[in-house]
């Protein structure tokens, strides 16, 4: 079904809030997502959707090698340029280095491939998609694991980061950043980078039921712009990221109540909160298929839709007594990225995010790993009922 409606009027991009990166570059606060979330309809229609997003006023596109559609997005960008909707300099194009290519020697060729696929000479922002090289096949099942997966090893991350900084020096990418870091891994990165080489942006899961307030404040204090993905709670996310206890942001009673009070839809309430966060210093990425939703998602970055009271109802007031509606309802646990020792110490889902297995050096990890192998052998020998399969 074609959900593009050319009768929907566009938004003047100059009305969209801009965020300032550490070097002074302006970046539109609202980005259009390009991930099809394994939905065949979204995959098939992506070129038209992205072209429509540009027509409607989006000037920030969130791409990634992992979405396996940069050629498609590239065709939409070229058409938008050919049709006179934009010139290259007016769009902020972001892409991400995929885990599969997270080896120092593969960083530059990966960026070159992304530029070729997108049909561009430079990117406005290039991110390291995840903090480690753990790769899972696109579309793989929720319980699939990669036998070669490893935890966060800082020296390995830094060898990749060094290549990212080379890309920045070469001008092929204007800015570099990260995605899916924790505060601890970000602290390590900032500890070991000088002014020019610091990340200027971190993309992370953020929506009203998962606000990550402390980390967001920390990033802002370090002049790293935080930007949220799954800003609507990703109602069409892949099966591997769905768990029984998950709640839907757009169905939350407070979101529904504020929608009733303002006349906005629940998705608009979520994005208005995203827009107003931290005095408009946080970005958001949202994906939509139909013209009306693409436009309304962008429009949220042009005006204050929420009164102070409504904002506080969702966000809380910064005190422990009023946390708003944040319930730490994380959607992406990333269990497909687990390494062999991940579950040995009783961590089921939270291991990517709780920092208990991160290492400075490969040597440190190998020490830990050999102790874990011994631990498992003894456990296997002695336990009456061993429920863990370590390999
Ligand atoms: N850095 C990372 O690791 C990472 C991870 C995940 C996502 N991302 C990025 O973030 C983007 C957004 O995430 P997401 O697509 O998972 O989640 P999302 O933006 O929270 O949700 C998108 C879904 O919400 C529905 N929707 C959108 N606007 C709506 C509206 N105004 N009213 C009602 N329903 C609406 C859409 O349905 P229809 O399809 O029916 O229009 C769409 O499929 C991705 O495309 C990707 O670029 C990055």
What would you note in describing this structure?
With 391 residues, this protein is an alpha/beta fold. The protein has a single domain (13-340), classed as Alpha-Beta Barrel (TIM Barrel). The chain is built from 11 helices and 12 strands. The strands form 3 sheets. The chain has an 8-stranded parallel barrel, surrounded by 5 helices. It has a two-stranded antiparallel ribbon with strand order 1-2. A two-stranded parallel sheet has the order 7-12. Strand 4, helix 2 and strand 5 (92-97) form a beta-alpha-beta unit. Helix 1 packs parallel to helix 2 (70-82) and helix 7 (253-262) crosses helix 8. The termini are far apart. The structure holds NADP nicotinamide-adenine-dinucleotide phosphate (NAP). NADP nicotinamide-adenine-dinucleotide phosphate (NAP) binds at residues 33-35, 37, 42, 62, 129, 179-180, 203, 229-237, 265, 267, 285-290, 293, 296-297.
């Amino acid at each position: 079904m074609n959900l593009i409606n050319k009768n929907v009027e566009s938004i003047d991009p100059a009305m969209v809030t801009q965020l300032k990166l550490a070097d002074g570059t302006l970046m539109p606060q609202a980005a259009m997502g390009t991930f099809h979330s394994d939905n065949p309809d979204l995959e098939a229609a992506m070129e038209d959707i992205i072209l429509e997003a540009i027509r409607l006023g989006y000037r920030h596109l969130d791409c990634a090698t992992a979405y396996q559609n940069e050629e498609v997005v590239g065709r939409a960008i070229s058409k938008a340029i050919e049709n006179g909707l934009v010139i290259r300099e007016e769009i902020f194009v972001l892409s991400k280095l995929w885990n599969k290519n997270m080896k120092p020697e593969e960083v530059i060729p990966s960026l070159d491939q992304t530029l070729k696929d997108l049909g561009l000479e430079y990117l406005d922002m290039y991110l390291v998609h995840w903090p480690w090289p753990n790769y899972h096949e696109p579309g793989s099942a929720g319980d699939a694991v990669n036998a070669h997966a490893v935890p966060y090893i800082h020296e390995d991350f830094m060898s990749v980061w060094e290549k990212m900084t080379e890309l920045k020096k070469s001008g092929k990418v204007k800015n570099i950043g990260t995605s899916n870091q924790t505060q601890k891994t970000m602290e390590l990165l900032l500890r070991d980078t000088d002014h020019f080489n610091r990340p200027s942006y971190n993309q992370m899961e953020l929506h009203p039921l998962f606000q990550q307030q402390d980390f967001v404040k920390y990033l802002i204090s370090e002049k790293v712009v935080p930007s949220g993905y799954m800003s609507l709670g990703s109602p069409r996310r892949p099966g591997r990221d769905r768990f029984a206890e998950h709640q839907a942001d757009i169905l939350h009673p407070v979101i529904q109540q504020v929608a009733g009070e303002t006349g906005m839809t629940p998705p608009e309430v979520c994005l208005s909160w995203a827009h107003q966060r931290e005095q408009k210093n946080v970005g958001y990425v949202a994906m939509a298929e139909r013209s009306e939703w693409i436009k309304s998602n962008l429009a949220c970055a042009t005006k204050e839709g929420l009164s102070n009271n409504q904002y506080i109802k969702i966000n809380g007031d910064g005190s422990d007594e009023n946390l708003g509606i944040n319930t730490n309802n994380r959607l992406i646990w990333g269990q497909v990225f687990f390494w062999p020792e991940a579950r040995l110490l009783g961590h089921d889902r939270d291991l990517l995010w709780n920092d208990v297995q991160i290492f400075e050096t490969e040597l440190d990890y190998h020490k830990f790993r050999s102790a874990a192998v011994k631990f498992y052998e003894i456990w296997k020998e002695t336990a009456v009922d061993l429920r863990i399969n370590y390999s």
